[in-house]
Design a protein that fits this description.
It is built from three helices and no strands. With about 80 residues, it is an all-alpha fold.
Amino acid sequence: MDDIWAAYYVQAKDHAVIFGEPTVFQDRNKHDLVEDMKREYIGYENNLNLLKDLSSDADLILKYLPGRSIAAWNRYRRIIGD
């Protein structure tokens, strides 16, 4: 869901996003498909409301992010001085 929500956020900030096939090969580590699916539920449960909120204020994405993601976001914003 990270890449999808990042694209929604960037579009809400009036930037263009290009969607296409992968251009590089990624040798991925093994995944537990059940755990992967559980992590995707956040999107299935929140995508429509997220899109509605982003249409009025892109920073409302924060209300949908898990705690660790918010902490990472806040550190990033401090680094870039935004």
